């Protein structure tokens, strides 16, 4: 949401090109995210996990109210230089959508490579498993935490900036995806990148196929019934790590 | 440690609540001590959340009217000069919140009139407004709000069933008889569809697809539209807030839909235009309510100009209707010789309509019917060759 607003403000107020605006937005939201880590989540590191979540919801409400204060409650429109319509065979699609798909895949691959192949990525994974353990083997946990939050903020900015031309920019736009994102994470298993990808596909496909072949009015029910079924058999999510905790 | 934290989590909101309650009761000003007396009007509507934009536009109309009236030295009732004040509370579009807000407004500020721009909130307030004696100034074209026999409800905009005839006739004649219906999933949208579809079929049309779109959950309308367009409709029935509705129309065009749109009265053609690239080209063949800026009532140009100056954008009908309503209520209070008794004021609304100065007539409202609905000619507009033209309805 914040990412979309910053991209939009860059484009409208300063007349910067869409792509450059997105890059600026990634940095700004990344920095905001790091600040939040320092101010909110770092002091809570010793607290039970539920308090992180409460804090996250608090931040969500705060940012939403802040956006309404700064930019107003109105629907804003983000234009994109890529809104040509392309028809391939019987398939009609806009260029913006193709860009979204390609960027999403690229970013996913880059993220996965970063987590698996770099030292920094390995540190993040180590810290996610056990903060004290990571600290013991010489990982600077503060630095890693900040980098993690920067990446998370940056990814959020990319996502918001790319999808807003399809929809609209308004303070409550995050609600559209937040529940779905949560479902996807649970479905795929906490902390697993392939799980998140697969979870996303499962949810997306059931919604679309359910809407087409059964009824659009029931698509949420179909998706959530599937969620219940999957969780009945795999309570940890599809790709949950075998970890004892 | 954990307990202490938990306790503080609980305590902080409680303290905040207490502070809020104190702040608002301290700010109570139904009648200030000096020479000028103040009449407080109430408002409960969505000021945060997905419908915040809509709520704010309605509130702006009220605020503009109040500013003007107070700027001109207030108004005189029974030899005493009064000024106006608005007390606005956020209900996030929720009926239960609207009811709670109304209780608060009546108890704390003794508001004789409470504005609310959504049918759910209006109905929730109708449960007790007669006992608590306040007028509900309801901004909703839902006919049900004035069919309950509530003696203190005013329905400001025209009821939507007045649109069925001209919308059906025009679209069927210009595009054909196959209709796909994808209104918004709200109660209001469903009621609209339930009124339109039988009418369409009675007029000899065929409903080829029926579903709905949830603007608070759906990020992308391609799936819904692909399914709707599968059955080759000539006309799409869409509606909801202007901006997402415009996106829906735009995506329908992207998918190659060449027919017409019937647009629910909640969405406004001029606001939709801004979303789809500041041109009516994409909306060719749409039929909907006449946008305020294209209306030609005596008070419209003046209001549009003032609004543009103040907010730097075009006003919609929400602002216009609320603006004119405040003036009507002021005239009604003058005619009633009373600023507190809701029943007296309500009984003189017709006088208020008759006495309304011409330059304030942003809309020309002829009369109030026995159920409390404002009666006026329904204005319908269609997009032809990229321009808004008026369609005359019988």
- CATH secondary-structure class of the largest domain in chain B: Alpha Beta
- What is the 3D form of chain A? globular
Number of helices of chain B: 14
User: Which runs of chain B of at least 5 residues are low in confidence (pLDDT < 50)?
Assistant: 13-34
Gap between N and C termini of chain A, in Å? 34 Å
Order of helices and strands of chain A: HHHEEHHHHHHH
Question: In total, how many domains does the architecture of chain B comprise?
Answer: 2
> How are the strands ordered across the major sheet of chain A?
1-2
The CATH topology label of the largest domain in chain B is: Rossmann fold
| Total domains of chain A | 2
Rg of chain B, Cα atoms, Å: 22 Å
| CATH fourth-tier homologous superfamily of the largest domain in chain B | Response regulator
End-to-end separation of chain B in angstroms reads: 73 Å
What number is the mean pLDDT of chain B? 86
Poorly predicted tracts of residues of chain A: none
Keywords (chain B): Amino-acid transport, Signal, Transport
Family (chain B): Belongs to the leucine-binding protein family.
Protein name (chain B): ABC transporter substrate-binding protein
Signal peptide (chain B): 1-18
Task: Describe this structure as you would to a colleague.
The complex is a heterodimer of chains A (245) and B (394). Chain A has 245 residues and is mainly alpha-helical. Chain A has two domains: 2-80 and 124-169, no CATH class; 175-245, no CATH class. Helices cover 70% and strands 3% of the residues of chain A. Chain A has ten helices and two strands; from the N terminus they run αααββααααααα. In chain A, strands 1-2 form a two-stranded antiparallel sheet. In chain A, a hairpin with a 2-residue loop joins β1 (85-88) and β2 (91-94). Chain A starts with a helix and ends in a 12-residue tail after the last helix. The mean pLDDT of chain A is 83. With 394 residues, chain B is α/β, with parallel strands linked by helices. In chain B, 45% of the residues lie in helices and 18% in strands. Chain B has 14 helices and 15 strands. Chain B has helices at 2-26, 52-71, 95-109, 119-126, 129-132, 161-174, 187-202, 222-230, 242-254, 269-275, 300-311, 317-336, 342-347, 349-355; strands at 37-45, 75-77, 80-90, 113-116, 135-138, 153-155, 178-182, 206-210, 235-238, 260-263, 286-289, 367-368, 374-375, 380-384, 387-391. The chains are: A mainly alpha (245), B alpha/beta (394). At the A-B interface, α3, α8 and α9 of A face α1, α2, α8 and α9 of B. Chain B: This is ABC transporter substrate-binding protein.
């Amino acid at each position: 949401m914040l990412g979309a607003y910053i991209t939009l403000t860059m484009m409208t107020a300063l007349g910067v090109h869409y792509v450059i605006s997105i890059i600026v937005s990634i940095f700004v939201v990344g920095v905001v995210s790091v600040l939040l880590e320092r101010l909110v989540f770092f002091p809570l590191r010793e607290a039970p996990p539920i308090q992180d979540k409460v804090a996250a919801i608090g931040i969500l409400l705060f940012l939403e109210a802040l956006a309404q204060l700064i930019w107003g409650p109105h629907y804003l429109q983000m234009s994109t230089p890529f809104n040509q319509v392309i028809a391939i065979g019987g398939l009609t699609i806009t260029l913006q959508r193709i860009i979204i798909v390609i960027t999403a895949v690229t970013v996913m691959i880059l993220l996965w490579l970063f987590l698996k192949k770099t030292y920094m990525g390995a540190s993040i994974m180590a810290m996610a498993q056990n903060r004290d353990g990571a600290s013991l083997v010489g990982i600077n946990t503060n630095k890693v935490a900040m980098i993690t939050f920067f990446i998370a903020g940056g990814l959020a900015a990319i996502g918001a900036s790319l999808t807003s031309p399809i929809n609209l920019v308004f303070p409550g736009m995050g609600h559209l995806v937040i529940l779905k994102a949560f479902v996807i994470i649970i479905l795929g298993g906490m902390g697993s990148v392939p799980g998140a990808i697969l979870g996303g596909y499962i949810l997306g496909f059931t919604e679309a196929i359910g809407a087409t072949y059964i009824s659009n009015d029931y698509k949420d029910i179909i998706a959530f019934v599937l969620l219940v079924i999957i969780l009945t058999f795999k309570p940890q999510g599809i790709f949950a790590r075998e970890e004892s905790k | 440690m954990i307990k202490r934290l938990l306790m503080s989590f609980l305590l902080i909101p409680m303290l905040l609540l207490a502070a809020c309650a104190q702040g608002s009761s301290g700010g109570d000003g139904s009648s200030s001590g000096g020479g000028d007396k103040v009449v407080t009007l109430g408002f409960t509507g969505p000021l945060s959340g997905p419908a915040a934009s809509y709520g704010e536009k309605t509130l702006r109309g009220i605020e503009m009217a109040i500013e003007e009236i107070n700027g001109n030295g207030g108004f005189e009732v029974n030899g005493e000069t009064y000024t106006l004040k608005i007390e606005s509370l956020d209900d996030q579009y929720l009926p239960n919140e609207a009811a709670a807000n109304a209780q608060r407004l009546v108890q704390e500020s003794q508001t004789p009139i409470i504005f609310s721009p959504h049918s759910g909130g209006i109905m929730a307030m109708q449960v007790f407004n007669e006992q608590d004696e306040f007028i509900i100034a309801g901004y909703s074209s839902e006919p049900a709000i004035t069919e309950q026999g509530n003696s203190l409800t005013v329905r400001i905009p025209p009821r939507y069933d007045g649109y069925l005839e001209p919308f059906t006739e025009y679209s069927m004649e210009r595009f054909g008889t196959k209709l796909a219906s994808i209104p918004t999933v709200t109660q209001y949208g469903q009621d609209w569809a339930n009124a339109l579809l039988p009418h369409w079929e009675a007029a000899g049309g065929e409903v080829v697809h029926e579903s709905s779109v949830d603007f608070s959950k759906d990020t992308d309308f391609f799936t819904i539209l692909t399914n709707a367009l599968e059955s080759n409709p000539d006309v799409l029935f869409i509606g909801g807030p202007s901006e997402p509705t415009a996106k829906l129309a735009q995506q329908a065009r992207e998918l190659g839909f060449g027919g017409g749109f019937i647009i629910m009265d909640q969405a406004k053609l001029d606001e939709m235009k801004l979303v789809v690239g500041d041109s009516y080209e994409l909306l060719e063949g749409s039929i909907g309510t006449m946008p305020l800026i294209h209306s030609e009532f005596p008070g419209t140009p003046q209001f549009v100009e003032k609004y543009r100056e103040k907010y730097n954008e075009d006003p919609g009908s929400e602002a216009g209707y609320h603006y004119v309503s405040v003036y009507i209520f002021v005239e009604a209070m003058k005619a009633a010789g009373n600023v507190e008794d809701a029943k007296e004021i309500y009984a003189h609304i017709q006088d208020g309509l008759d006495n309304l100065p011409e330059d304030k007539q942003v809309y020309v409202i002829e009369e109030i019917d026995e159920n409390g609905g404002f009666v006026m000619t329904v204005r319908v507009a269609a997009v032809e060759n990229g321009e808004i033209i008026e369609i005359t309805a019988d």
